[in-house]
Specification:
The protein is mainly α. The chain has one domain. The longest helix has 14 residues. The termini are far apart.
């Protein structure tokens, strides 16, 4: 499985940090580094939404 997809799944709350580590085969300190470094390198796309106001 792609490392980026696993980290994105963690950020979206689909899996826990522990599950993320198990999938990637990394310990907590490595995960902390991966999650923080990847965050600065490739931000998650913002959700598209529309705002409507009834006057």
């Amino acid at each position: 499985m792609d490392k980026v997809k696993v980290i994105e799944a963690y950020r979206r709350g689909l899996i826990t940090l522990q599950e993320c580590g198990q999938i990637l085969g990394a310990d907590k300190t490595q995960l902390d580094d991966l999650v923080s470094v990847d965050h600065f390198r490739r931000p998650i796309k913002a959700a598209n939404y529309a705002v409507a106001d009834q006057l």
